[in-house]
Design a protein that fits this description.
Elements: H1 2-6, H2 11-29, H3 34-62, E1 68-78, E2 81-89, H4 91-114, H5 121-140, H6 144-162, H7 169-200, H8 205-215, H9 221-237, H10 246-249, H11 255-264, H12 269-276, H13 278-282, H14 285-306, H15 312-333, H16 336-370, H17 376-380, H18 393-407, H19 413-429, H20 434-461, H21 480-495, H22 510-523, H23 533-557, H24 574-580, H25 585-636, H26 641-660
Antiparallel strand pairs: 1-2
Helix pairs in contact: 2-3, 2-5, 3-4, 3-5, 4-5, 4-11, 4-16, 4-21, 5-6, 6-7, 7-9, 9-12, 9-14, 11-16, 14-15, 14-20, 15-16, 15-19, 15-20, 16-18, 16-19, 16-21, 16-22, 18-20, 18-21, 19-20, 19-23, 20-23
Length: 661
C-alpha cells in the first residue's frame, strides 16, 4: 500500500506542467480569462502539494531505508551510458518536495492579488507553474542528468520571470545577467558529471554512492576535483562568492517571484546538491573546507552590504545570499551539520518567503497610493516609507515575527536552525581549527543580520510617515488573498523549530533521525566532533547575545525620525558609500571581465577575425580570385584561330617537357 501511494510521485511534477500548458494556451488565446488562470495556476500547485503529502506520508509509514526509485523509460541508452527517466523518493527529496509545493502554493495564492491588474497575468502563471515543474524535477531526479534537466530548467524560468516586465531595459538586463552568470556555474556541474561517469561508469545516484568509497580514496585528487566542480555549479545557482552578483539584480522581477525563486526554491538547489552528494564531499576534506569557508565568507560579506541598501527588496536579496552562506557552512561542515543546513533551508523558506511577500504587501500599498505619480523604484525605497504600522498592522506584526526569526531570537524557527549550524562548526573546530574561524565569521554575520533586519523594520514601519500628505490616506492593508499566505508563513516561522528540536532543549531531533539514511554514510567518514552540554549551552547563550546586541544596536543607533525621503536624502560618503556600492563588486567584474571580453569581441573577433579574415580573406578574397580568373579567361577568348593554334602548340610543348623530365 505504501509503495502504491509513493508510485503517485510522477503526478507531483506533472500537475504544474499541465498548469503551464493550460495557462500558456490561455495566454495565447484568451489572456483576459483571469479567473480560469487563477484556478489552474494555484490549483495545480495545491494539488501537487496534496499528492506530495501522500507520498511523504507513505515513505514515513514504510520506513524505507533505501531510496525508492521509479523508472519510467530509458532516456539515454548510449553504450555504457544508461540514463533512465527516473524519480527517486527518499527522506531528503521528501523534505524538498514539501517545501517546494507547500511554500510554492502560498506564493501562488499571494500572486493572485499582487498580479491581478497585470496584462501578462496568464503568461506570469504559466511561467510560475513551469518553474515549479522544473524545480520538482531537480529535487526528484534519480540521477545527475535528470537533476541537471531541472537545474537548467529553473535557470530558464528564472530568466523569464526576472525579466517578466522585459519592455524596461533594466528588467531585461537583469534577466540576461542571471542567465549568463548561472551558465558559468553550470559549466562546473557538467564537468563534474563527465568526471563522475569516467570514474564510476554511471550517473545514477544509487550506483555512484554505492561505489564511492571503493572508487575514491579519502582525499584523492579525483573526488576533490569532482566536488569542487560540483560546488562551482552551486556557487552560481545559490549565489555564493564569486557568482553572487546576479541575485540582487533579480529583484527587478515581480515580488512573488523573488519569494519563490530567491527565498524558498531555486537558490537552495546548490545546498540540496551538496547535501545529496554529502558522501562525496566527506571523501574530499579540502572541498568540504572550501564549501564551509566560502559559505561563511559569503554570509559575512553579504551581511555587510545589506547594512546600507535602501531598496527593501535588495536588503532581502543580500540577506538571502547571507543565509545561503549559513546553509553552505552547515553542509560543508558535514555530519549532523548537513541536517542543520537542510533544517535552515526549510526555516529560511518560511521566514524569507514571509519577508519577501510582506515587502510585496508594502510595495503594493505604496504603489497604489502613489497612483503612478512615482516610479516603481520609489515604491521600494525605504526612505519613502515610515510609519506604516498604523496602515498595515497585519503586515507589520508578521514581518516582525520573520525578522526575529531570521535574527535568531528564541523560540522562533531561525534560532534553532542557525544555532545548530554554528554549534556544529564550533565543535568541528576542536578537530580542525579552521572551523573556529568559520564559526566566528558566522557569529559576526548573525549580529549584522539582526542589525540590518531591525533597520529595515524601523525605516519601513516606525517613525514618521514619509509617503506624502496626499498619498497617506490611501495606504491600506492588502486583500486577504495576499494577507492569508502571510499569516500561514508567520505561523511556520514561529513554530518551525519543532521540526528538529534538539535533545538539549527537550526535543527528539526528528529531522536528524528522518535524514539519517541519507547522511549517515558521509558522517561516518568525518572525524568525531562534539561539545559537552555545558559548552553547548554557552554557545547558545553567545548566539542569542549577539542577536540581541544587533537588535539593540539598531534601536539605539538609528533614528527613523531623522530620515529624509529619497529625493532629499544626502549621498552616502566614506565607508558607508563602499557598502552602498556593494564593495564595488559589479564595477570590478565590469573592469576585469565584461569590458575586456567586449574589447576582445569587438576589436579582435569582429574587426580582425570576422571582417579581415573571414569576410576579407575568405569571402571577399575568394570573390576577387574568381573575378581575376574570369578576367584571365576572357582575355584568352580572342576569336583568332592563329592565337588558339599558338596556345595549343605551347601547351603541347609544355606537356612534353614535363613528361621528358
Amino acid at each position: 500500500m505504501t509503495r502504491t501511494a509513493m508510485s503517485l510521485v510522477w503526478l507531483v511534477p506533472l500537475l504544474p506542467l499541465l498548469g503551464f500548458v493550460l495557462n500558456g494556451t490561455l495566454a495565447l488565446v484568451r489572456p483576459t480569462a483571469k479567473t480560469a488562470v487563477s484556478v489552474i495556476g494555484v490549483g495545480a500547485v495545491v494539488a501537487a502539494f496534496g499528492v506530495a503529502v501522500a507520498v511523504v506520508r507513505a515513505l514515513a509509514v514504510g520506513h524505507a531505508a533505501e531510496p525508492v526509485v521509479f523508472t519510467y523509460w530509458s532516456w539515454m541508452p548510449v553504450g555504457s551510458l544508461q540514463v533512465n527517466a527516473a524519480l527517486q523518493v527518499d527522506p531528503l527529496s521528501a523534505v524538498m518536495l514539501l517545501v517546494v509545493t507547500g511554500v510554492g502554493s502560498l506564493i501562488h495564492l499571494f500572486s493572485v492579488g499582487y498580479m491581478r491588474e497585470d496584462d501578462g497575468y496568464a503568461r506570469y502563471f504559466a511561467y510560475l507553474n513551469l518553474f515549479v515543474f522544473f524545480m520538482l524535477t531537480l529535487v526528484l531526479g534519480a540521477s545527475f542528468p535528470v537533476m541537471f534537466v531541472g537545474w537548467e530548467g529553473v535557470g530558464l524560468c528564472s530568466y523569464l520571470l526576472i525579466g517578466f516586465w522585459f519592455t524596461e531595459q533594466i528588467n531585461a538586463d537583469a534577466g540576461k545577467k542571471a542567465f549568463i552568470v548561472n551558465r558559468v556555474g553550470d559549466f562546473g556541474f557538467l564537468v563534474a558529471m563527465f568526471l563522475i561517469f569516467q570514474h564510476a561508469g554511471s550517473l545514477n545516484f544509487t550506483d555512484v554512492f554505492a561505489k564511492a568509497r571503493s572508487l575514491f580514496p579519502l582525499g584523492s585528487a579525483a573526488v576533490t576535483a569532482i566536488t569542487l566542480f560540483l560546488f562551482l555549479g552551486c556557487t552560481g545557482k545559490s549565489a555564493q562568492i564569486p557568482l553572487y552578483t546576479w541575485l540582487p539584480d533579480a529583484m527587478q522581477g515581480p515580488t512573488p517571484v523573488s519569494a519563490l525563486i530567491h527565498a524558498a526554491t531555486m537558490v537552495t538547489a546548490g545546498v540540496y546538491l551538496v547535501a545529496r552528494c554529502n558522501l562525496l564531499f566527506a571523501l574530499a576534506p579540502v572541498s568540504s573546507a572550501v564549501v564551509a569557508g566560502v559559505g561563511a565568507l559569503t554570509a559575512l560579506f553579504a551581511a555587510t552590504i545589506a547594512l546600507k541598501q535602501w531598496d527593501i527588496k535588495r536588503v532581502l536579496a543580500y540577506s538571502t545570499i547571507s543565509q545561503l552562506g549559513y546553509m553552505f557552512l552547515g553542509v560543508g561542515t558535514g555530519g549532523g551539520a548537513t541536517v542543520a543546513g537542510i533544517f535552515h533551508l526549510a526555516t529560511h523558506a518560511f521566514f524569507k518567503a514571509l519577508l519577501f511577500l510582506g515587502s510585496g504587501s508594502v510595495i503594493y500599498a505604496i504603489h497604489h497610493a502613489y497612483h503612478a505619480t512615482h516610479s516603481h523604484e520609489d515604491a521600494q525605497d525605504m526612505r519613502n516609507m515610515g510609519g506604516l504600522k498604523a496602515h498595515l498592522p497585519w503586515t507589520w506584526v508578521l514581518m516582525w515575527i520573520a525578522t526575529l526569526a531570521i535574527a535568531g531570537v528564541p523560540p522562533l524557527s531561525g534560532f534553532f536552525s542557525k544555532d545548530e549550524i554554528l554549534s556544529a562548526a564550533f565543535a568541528r573546530g576542536g578537530v580542525e581549527r579552521i572551523w573556529y574561524l568559520f564559526w566566528g565569521m558566522g557569529l559576526a554575520a548573525a549580529s549584522l543580520t539582526a542589525f540590518y533586519m531591525t533597520r529595515l523594520m524601523l525605516y519601513t514601519f516606525h517613525g514618521p510617515n514619509r509617503t506624502g500628505e496626499r498619498e497617506r490616506p490611501l495606504l491600506r492593508e492588502a486583500p486577504w488573498v495576499m494577507t492569508g499566505p502571510l499569516v500561514a508563513l508567520g505561523v511556520l516561522s514561529a513554530v518551525g523549530g519543532v521540526l528538529n528540536l534538539p535533545a538539549l532543549l527537550g526535543g527528539s531531533s526528528r529531522l536528524e533521525r528522518w535524514l539519517a539514511p541519507v547522511t549517515e554514510a558521509g558522517a561516518a567518514l568525518l572525524p568525531a566532533h562534539a561539545v559537552a552540554s555545558g559548552t553547548e549551552w554557552t554557545l547558545i547563550g553567545i548566539a542569542v547575545a549577539v542577536a540581541l546586541a544587533g537588535i539593540a544596536g539598531a534601536l539605539r543607533m538609528l533614528r527613523p525620525a531623522d530620515l529624509l525621503p529619497a529625493q532629499r536624502a544626502p549621498a552616502e560618503t566614506g565607508f558607508a558609500r563602499v557598502l552602498w556600492k556593494k564593495w564595488y563588486g559589479d564595477e570590478i567584474y565590469d573592469a576585469l571581465i565584461v569590458r575586456p571580453i567586449m574589447w576582445l569581441s569587438r576589436e579582435v573577433l569582429w574587426k580582425i577575425v570576422d571582417v579581415r579574415l573571414v569576410d576579407g580573406a575568405g569571402v571577399n578574397g575568394a570573390a576577387a580570385v574568381s573575378r581575376a580568373l574570369g578576367w584571365v579567361g576572357s582575355r584568352l577568348q580572342t576569336g583568332e584561330l592563329g592565337f588558339y593554334v599558338v596556345l595549343f602548340v605551347a601547351g603541347v610543348l609544355f606537356v612534353l617537357h614535363v613528361a621528358v623530365r
